[in-house]
Amino acid sequence: MLSTDSKSNSSISPLVKMLALLSIVRWYNVLLIVISLYLTQIFIFNNGENILETLLNLPIHIYTLTIVFITMGGYLINGFYDFEKDLINHPETTYFGRLVSKKTCLNTYVILTFLGVSMAALISKKVLLFNLLLAFGLWLYSHKLRKKPLTGEVSATFLTISSFIGLYVFNNLELNKTLLLFVTYIFTIDLTREIIKKMVSLKGDLIVGEKSIPILFGIRFSKYIILSQMIFSLLSIITIIPFIIEKKIAIYFIIAMGIILFSIFLLYKAKTPSQFNKINTAYKILLMLAIFSIVLY
Q1: CATH assignment of 175-297, given 3.30.910, 1.20.120, 3.30.70, 1.10.3470?
Q2: Which residues of 114-127 are buried (b: 16+ CB within 10 A; e: fewer)?
Q3: What count of other Cβ atoms lies within 10 Å of the Cβ of residue 228?
């Protein structure tokens, strides 16, 4: 669990504590969110025509900063509740968490969440309401929903894509068919990965007594659930292709089909956590490519 010994933590330098906090808030994931938000705003909502104007637009920077604060807070509160399981499944990456006290973790969560919500008031009432709901959703997920099979995976996926939905609120736009299909595709990809992660963390879930899809339904049936999601992702791509066939981003979807088909092959062979982790890695690559393919839209 997170350290509760104030004496042991008092001897740790502020720099090390800062690095520990950055590890807990998954700075690399936050960085990817920042990159994806800017790329979406520049190349999708502004069609790549006014890059300088977007970069000089103060509200978009404030919005991105609020999402960063709320997301980091979400990782902190999730790490607070999930530390024991992470220590079992990922002991090498959870080491830093032992250097941060529970009090520091909770205090930082409150400060970051407050900043993320209050700063949204500088943009608009709609963004303020959206950020408030997002912050509440992250807390609800960490405290309650993550413990519920399927509900936990679906809510985690929805929260992952919510910052992009927030861009529609920020821009006062309505979803068009192409972007709705793209969001649906990202949802299926991320949901598939969330279920795969449960296969990887099966040992930790069993030890801490947390219910999950593979624990409730077994590995074999869980593989069928993952397979159905993979097939649905392929169907999403097939549906999207006619709308973007003349755009360069079609290259990404062709590559994505190849990665998904290869993942289906890996899924057929998968039996151990390490084998499922290979599929998880493939889907990480799939999501990263999706982010950077936005410049081709």
Answers
A1: 1.20.120
A2: ebbbebbeebeeeb
A3: 12
The single-letter DSSP state of residue 56 is T
For every residue of 168-207, DSSP letters joined together read HHHHT----HHHHHHHHHHHHHHHHHHHHHHHHTHHHHHH
Chain segment 184-231, per-residue pLDDT in tens: 899 999 999 989 988 988 877 777 667 778 888 888 999 999 999 999
Give the tokens for residue 105: 């973790």
Round to whole Å and give the CA distance between 187 and 171: 21
CATH topology of domain 12-173: Tetracycline Repressor; domain 2 (1.10.357)
Please give the model's pTM, rounded to 2 decimal places: 0.84
Dist. CA 278–CA 263, nearest whole Å: 9
Sequence-ordered alpha helix ranges (H) in the chain: 6-10, 14-24, 27-40, 51-55, 58-89, 102-118, 125-143, 151-171, 177-200, 202-208, 213-244, 250-269, 273-292
Reported as a single tens digit per residue, the pLDDT across 77-131 is: 887 666 655 555 555 555 455 667 777 888 899 999 999 999 999 999 999 999 9
Contacts of 261 (CB under 8 A, 6+ apart): 234
Q: How far apart are CA 207 and CA 170, in angstroms?
A: 43
How far is 291 from 287, CA to CA, in rounded Å?
A: 6
Say how many CA atoms lie within 13 Å of 263 toward its Cβ.
30
Domain ranges of the chain: 12-173, 175-297
